[in-house]
Every structure is written in structure tokens, then in C-alpha cells.
Amino acid sequence: MAYERNGVKVTAIAVDHGPVKCLGYRIDAGGRSVVFSGDDRASENLVARSQHVDVLVHDMSGFTAEQLAEDSAAGRVRRAAAQLLATPEQAGDVFTRSHCRLAVLSRYTHEAAMIERVRGVYRGPLEPAEDMTRIDIGEQLTIARK
């Protein structure tokens, strides 16, 4: 556990980011829960600690085969990132196996093809992370975008 005070509990979760140590975080308060994956390739530890959360925010790399094959600095960076972050399919699998109420994708290209790849594995509620989005968590989940 990382923090607990006034009914708010924050738990650190070791995740898989290859050789780089990385943490995700689970926040529990008022009978509700949110997990932020941090930089994760789709770790079993994250899935185990994300069971039935209200909101699960997970990153993904999401590059096309052509982008990964580019013989350029950008191609090399993409190949390195692909080794450290979840693919769209892996992110979808994490969402499916966690049984979250709402899945939120972070750190990806916002290309429709990447969402389709996640959708090939995960059929539940899915939202793209966008700056200044607010998610109200109660009996209903309400999403407000600025």
C-alpha cells in the first residue's frame, strides 16, 4: 500500500514494463475504484489487482507493421516502445479479464484501426483518454469532455 487516509486508499501495483521498473496505482474511496496501469505490457499482477474496478485506464503502443518496419529514427523509437507497452490486443485482454465497468485507453495514436484491434478482444464500455475528460463514478458512470 502506498497511502491510506480519510477513507482514501492508494495501492501501488508492480507492472510489466520490461527491464524498467514501473508502477500502476489503484485508488479506492467511497466504495468505488480506479486503476491506472502506468506503463504496462499487460501484466498478470495488474489484472489480478484490477478485478471488477469501476474504471481501468491502460496504455497501449498500437503501431502498424509498416510503422514498425520503417528504417528511420522514428521506426527505431516505435520498435523500442512496442517492446515496453501493451499492444491493442493485450490492452483489450487486460480489460476483458479485469471485468472493469469502464475501460479507458491512454497513450495511443487515436487511430480508428487501433480501436478496432482492441475491440477484437474487448467488447465492454471503452473510452479514449483525452485531456480534461471527467469521469464521474457512481451507480452510473458519466463522462464529460471539455
Describe this structure in words.
The protein is an alpha/beta fold and 146 residues long. The chain has one domain (3-144): Ribonuclease Z/Hydroxyacylglutathione hydrolase-like (Metallo-beta-lactamase, Chain A, 4-Layer Sandwich). The protein is 29% helix and 29% strand. The protein has five helices and nine strands, in the order ββββαβαααβαβββ. It has helices spanning 44-49, 65-69, 73-84, 88-98, 112-119, and strands at 3-5, 8-14, 23-29, 32-36, 55-59, 102-106, 126-128, 134-137, 141-144. Strands 1-2-3-4-5-6-7 form a seven-stranded mixed beta sheet. Helix 5 (112-119) links the parallel strand 6 (102-106) and strand 7.
CATH fold field value: Metallo-beta-lactamase, Chain A
Cα-atom radius of gyration: 16 Å
* Count of distinct structural domains: 1
Q: What is the 3D form?
A: globular
What average pLDDT do the residues reach? 93
Unreliable parts: none
Annotated CATH architecture: 4-Layer Sandwich
Class computed from helices, strands and strand pairing: alpha/beta
CATH superfamily: Ribonuclease Z/Hydroxyacylglutathione hydrolase-like
- Written as H for each helix and E for each strand, in order along the chain, the element string is EEEEHEHHHEHEEE
Biggest sheet features: 7 strands, mixed
Strand order of the largest sheet: 1-2-3-4-5-6-7
Number of helices: 5
- Give the CATH class: Alpha Beta
Distance between the termini: 33 Å
Strand content: 25-35%
| Count of strand segments | 9
- How helical, in percent, are the residues? 25-40%
